[in-house]
Amino acid sequence: MLFDPVIASAAVGKIQLVENFKSVILNPLISLLFGLALVYFLWGLAEVVFAGDEEEKRKIGRNHIMWGIVGMFIMVAVYGILNLVSATITQVF
Q1: Which residues, 6+ apart, have CB-to-CB distance to 29 below 8 Å?
Q2: Disulfide: which of 12, 19, 47, 53 matches 61 by Cβ 3.0-4.6 Å?
Q3: Which residues contact 4 (CB under 8 A, 6 or more apart)?
């Protein structure tokens, strides 16, 4: 019983550390990577639109579109997993 406040204080510190790490480092990094994937997608879209009848350029553009969508999906999934882990850690402590 004597150490309960110490343990509770340590748990609050760990929760704050996780929240700070998430808000200062991970969320901006995920946003940056999502933005890059969006730019890659839009670049591929522009390639397809401006390629005209050149099938090779259209194929490259479609490839960029596909990988841009995959990248955005991965960033959304990582953001969801991050929130799930953060909520779990917060509930445990």
Answers
A1: none
A2: 47
A3: none
CA distance readout (Å), 66 to 12, 53, 59, 90: 43, 20, 11, 36
pLDDT at 8 over 60: no
Backbone phi and psi for residue 52, each to the nearest 5 degrees, phi listed first: 70, -125
Greatest alpha-carbon pair distance for the chain in Å reads 78
Amino acid occupying residue 8: A
pTM above 0.90, yes or no: no
* CB contact at 8 A, 89 and 18: yes
Cα 80 to chain centroid, rounded: 8
